[in-house]
């Protein structure tokens, strides 16, 4: 088996799986979806299990390719030190969030930890896609499933990218190194992660996050293919 053969594997639904240890492999991956139509670009949804590094990969991607636009979520929680409205989140009141939801202004919404609402504003996503700007939504797996349902209603073309750890042991190490959860919380998150990893085959593209730099490169190759860059 050649190196190029070893870094590209096929998931259960024959979608492309790309190991980030060879970012260029994304160029060779044959994806099981349609070519984008002129003026009809595809939203890229980046998801994966807890602690896999979605946000870190997305930040590295943006630092290398500032032309990429990443959706900014609206939330009803209070802002934290250093967070800026419109940059990290759109901070809105419960009343404003409810009104936006009632008007159908969100692509998806969620109540997180029974404390705060989060939602993806729909119109900015549509506007950036119409302009042909590479558009990414970085979201958890539940959110990705909600986007899948809503996208059908909106006839929105989406590419779903699953960011996977090199191994489950690696995910355990990543979660422990964060130091943000106690033992009970880590156990619950890891149990959730096992379930989330089992859904890998549902996605169009799988990128194995062996390093942040390589995963960001692999993600860019997916974007470049979709947007003919």
Automatic annotation (TrEMBL):
Its main location: cytoplasm. Belongs to the guanylate kinase family. Essential for recycling GMP and indirectly, cGMP. The keyword Mitochondrion does not apply. Transmembrane segments: none annotated. PANTHER family: GUANYLATE KINASE, GUANYLATE KINASE-RELATED. It holds the Pfam family Guanylate_kin. It is found in: Cytoplasm. It comes from the Bacteria. It catalyses: GMP + ATP = GDP + ADP. ATP binds at residues 48-55. This is Guanylate kinase. GO terms for cellular component: cytosol. It comes from Bifidobacterium aquikefiri. Its EC number is 2.7.4.8. Residues 41-224 form the Guanylate kinase-like domain. Residues 14-26 have a biased composition (Low complexity).
């Amino acid at each position: 088996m050649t190196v190029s053969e070893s870094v590209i594997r096929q998931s259960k639904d024959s979608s492309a799986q790309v190991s980030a240890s060879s970012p260029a492999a994304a160029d060779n991956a044959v994806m099981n979806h349609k070519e984008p139509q002129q003026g009809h670009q595809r939203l890229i949804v980046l998801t994966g299990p807890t602690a896999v590094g979605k946000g870190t990969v997305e930040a590295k991607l943006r630092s290398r390719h500032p032309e990429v636009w990443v959706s900014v979520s609206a939330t009803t929680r209070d802002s934290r030190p250093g967070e800026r409205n419109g940059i990290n989140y759109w901070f809105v009141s419960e009343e404003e969030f409810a009104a936006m939801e009632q008007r159908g202004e969100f692509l998806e919404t969620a109540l997180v930890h029974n404390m705060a609402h989060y939602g993806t504003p729909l119109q900015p996503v549509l506007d950036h896609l119409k302009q042909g700007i590479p558009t990414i939504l970085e979201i958890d797996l539940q959110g990705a499933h909600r986007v899948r349902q809503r996208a059908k209603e909106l006839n929105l073309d989406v590419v779903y990218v699953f960011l996977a750890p090199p191994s489950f042991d690696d995910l355990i190490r990543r979660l422990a190194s964060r130091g943000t959860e106690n033992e009970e919380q880590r156990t619950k998150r890891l149990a959730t992660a096992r379930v989330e990893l089992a859904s890998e085959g549902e996605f169009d593209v799988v990128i194995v996050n062996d390093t942040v730099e390589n995963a960001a490169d692999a993600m860019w190759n997916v974007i470049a293919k979709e947007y003919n860059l």
